[in-house]
Amino acid sequence: PQVTYIEHDGTEHRIALEAGKSVMQGAVDNAIPGIDADCGGECACATCHVYVDEAWLAQCGTPGEQEASMLSFAATAAPNSRLSCQITMSPALDGLIVRMPEAQH
Ligand code: FES
Fold first, then answer.
1. Which atom of ligand 1 lies at the shortest distance from residue 48's CA?
2. Domain limits of the chain?
3. pTM beyond cutoff 0.90
4. What is the dihedral of CA 28, 34, 40, 45, to 10 degrees?
């Protein structure tokens, strides 16, 4: 499945990820700027914050309890905010679009 990562300045990165990988891991593996992932996917840093394109929100599901609590501390959180380490790629997410917040730029 493919993901398009859009940096805050509009630069797009279209990447093919294996199913089962997190959207965060895909960004780190491909050195995409804007996703720092300081905690390595433990849902404990919120530096992998992304905005999920509205068209994909339902397919991505809802944040878990810990994720929602981390997001509540993120100054730039919006209703479509997710932590990208908590989104696992699957064929159903082929074409997913996420945008990175300015603070991680
Ligand atoms: Fe730290 Fe996602 S990588 S919360």
1. 2
2. 2-104
3. yes
4. -170
User: Can you tell me the distance from the alpha carbon of 60 to that of 33, in angstroms, rounded to the nearest whole number?
Assistant: 22
Our answer on whether the CB atom of 103 is closer than 6 Å to any ligand 1 atom is: no
CATH of domain 2-104: 3.10.20.30
Measured CA to CA, the distance from residue 33 to residue 5 in angstroms comes to 9
46 CA closest ligand 1 atom index:
4
Residues 39-88 have pLDDT tens digits of 999 999 999 999 999 999 999 999 999 999 999 988 899 999 999 999 99
Task: Tell me how far the alpha carbon of residue 73 lies from the centroid of ligand 1, in angstroms.
Answer: 13
* ipTM of this complex: 0.99
